[in-house]
């Protein structure tokens, strides 16, 4: 897979760095899977913040690429000139041909300008929310998420949410094992769900973090039956305060989080090709393989069997 990362004179260096770290950094586990490069439609190398000049590949189109990453885009309307017309034409052609597009931070402004997000959900950095809503009333703006995924086009909110979206893309494309490996390299959580809030204002506690310890306890005991009441006791919380803190901190209920973690165990078991569906369900702590199948299809949109056929390194086990 060839990945184009769009650069211009106002490109944000942090988001550009996230894109290059995800798609251009050479790693043994990603060798031969994808290749990324920074491209520009400008006639001269873009000069960014701090006077940094970017030596990147100048292109006239994008059709030799499979994935386009837009780290950011100007949030204020710009006069149409030869450069912008060229970008608009190339991105429209790319999207029309069914190629995938990821936008980081204000990068969502570009496909929105082109009408590619009309009638769809989208997000961007919270500081640009009002501007985005005013300029693109046909787009359903979503503010309380890390990223939004709609078929071939996905938008991440600001800053580190770009990495969350990139990791999710790798997980959907190449499986949880590779995505987790890249996440470990970046010292990131393997998966933060897109439905989490962009930011949570929580003061730093000076007391022992029993809540974090309770999460570790749950992960260590996934194979067994975990009641939320027992889990709350591990965190030294009442059931009600535990539920409240869980939703505030992680954006989901304790039961939903447990299902997410169990499904990650199932994914790894299916990718290894060494476990049957019944065994995968048992390893993850699901009451039955039927329950596991139900949650798997609901979250990932495919059956466990389909997932294994796509990602298993040892197909054939049933």
From TrEMBL:
Q: A Pfam family this protein belongs to?
A: HTH_18
The HTH araC/xylS-type domain is annotated at 212-310
Q: What is this protein called?
A: GlxA family transcriptional regulator
Q: Which UniProt keywords apply?
A: Transcription, Transcription regulation
Gene3D superfamilies referenced in this protein's UniProt entry, alphabetically: 3.40.50.880, Homeodomain-like
Keyword 4Fe-4S attributed: no
PANTHER family noted in UniProt: ARAC-FAMILY TRANSCRIPTIONAL REGULATOR, HTH-TYPE TRANSCRIPTIONAL REGULATOR RV1931C
């Amino acid at each position: 897979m060839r990945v184009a990362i769009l650069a211009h004179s106002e490109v944000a260096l942090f988001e550009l760095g996230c894109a290059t770290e995800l798609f251009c950094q050479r790693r043994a586990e990603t060798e031969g899977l994808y290749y990324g490069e920074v491209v520009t439609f400008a006639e001269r190398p873009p000069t960014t913040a701090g006077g940094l000049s970017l030596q990147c590949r100048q292109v006239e189109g994008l059709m030799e690429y499979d994935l386009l990453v837009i780290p950011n885009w100007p949030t204020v309307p710009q006069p149409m000139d030869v450069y912008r017309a060229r970008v608009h034409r190339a991105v429209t052609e790319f999207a029309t041909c069914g190629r995938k597009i990821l936008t980081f931070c204000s990068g969502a402004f570009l496909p929105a300008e082109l009408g590619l997000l009309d009638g769809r959900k989208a997000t961007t950095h919270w500081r640009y929310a009002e501007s985005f809503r005013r300029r693109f009333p046909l787009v359903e703006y979503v503010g309380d998420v890390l990223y939004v995924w709609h078929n071939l086009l996905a938008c991440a909110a600001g800053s580190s949410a770009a990495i969350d979206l990139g990791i999710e893309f790798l997980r959907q494309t190449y499986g949880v094992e590779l995505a987790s490996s890249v996440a470990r390299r970046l010292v990131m959580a393997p998966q933060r769900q897109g439905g989490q809030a962009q930011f949570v204002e929580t003061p730093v506690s000076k007391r022992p973090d029993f809540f974090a310890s309770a999460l570790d306890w749950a992960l260590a005991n996934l194979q067994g039956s975990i009641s939320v009441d027992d889990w709350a006791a591990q965190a030294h919380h009442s059931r009600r305060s535990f539920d409240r803190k869980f939703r505030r901190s992680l954006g989901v209920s304790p039961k939903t989080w447990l299902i997410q973690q169990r499904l990650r165990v199932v994914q790894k078991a299916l990718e290894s090709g060494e476990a049957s569906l019944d065994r995968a369900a048992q390893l993850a702590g699901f009451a039955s393989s039927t329950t596991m199948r139900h949650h798997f299809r609901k979250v990932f949109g495919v059956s466990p069997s389909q997932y294994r056929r796509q990602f298993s390194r040892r197909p054939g086990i049933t």
